[in-house]
Amino acid sequence: MYKKLTTTARDVLKLAESIARLQQDEHIDTEHLLLAMAQHDRGMAHQILLDCEIDSDKIHAELKKIRPIKPDCDIVTGNLPASPLLKEVITDAIEMAQNFDNKNVCTEFLLLGLTRHNQTLSGKIIAQLGLTDDMIREKIAQGT
């Protein structure tokens, strides 16, 4: 599955893993991916978020409203697995990339995949910040 991801998309997933680790989570989830896209300064997803005036500070603020802060605990070590929801997002991103006639999955397709899952933390944050599936599709078509 990950072989279809571009180098930038894989880098974003690595950053998502680091974010999950810092948040003391035991797996990489959709909110970590969204934060990673906002923080990683390459890739179309980052540019789309910037164009829509969405940055990591705004995402963090929304995340704090939804998700309780964990008490201090041991830092998780080793490779963190992707959550089942994140795996679904990646699968959806692969499908959407193919719909756009792309062989590789770029970060914008991962972002688009997040919009399909509006009950996840990232889906709720995206909706709260006003980013829609149609907006992302339009930006992809424009090649932003």
How would you describe this protein?
By secondary structure, the chain is mainly α. It has one domain (2-142): Orthogonal Bundle (Double Clp-N motif). It is 61% helix and 0% strand. α2 (30-39) packs across α7 (121-128), α3 (44-51) packs across α6 (107-115) and α4 (56-66) packs across α7 (121-128).
Q: Helix- and strand-based class?
A: mainly alpha
Any idea how many domains?
Answer: 1
The helicity comes to: 55-70%
Distance N to C terminus: 26 Å
The major pleated sheet works out as:
none
**Known CATH architecture:** Orthogonal Bundle
DSSP, total strands = 0
CATH fold-level topology: Double Clp-N motif
Kindly report the name of the CATH homologous superfamily.
Answer: Clp, N-terminal domain
Q: What does the average pLDDT come to? A: 89
Protein traits:
144 residues; mainly alpha; Double Clp-N motif; 8 helices; 61% helix
Give me a quick take on this structure:
Helices cover 61% and strands 0% of the residues. It has 144 residues and is an all-alpha fold.
Task: Please describe the topology of this protein.
Blueprint: H1 7-22, H2 30-39, H3 44-51, H4 56-66, H5 84-99, H6 107-115, H7 121-128, H8 133-142
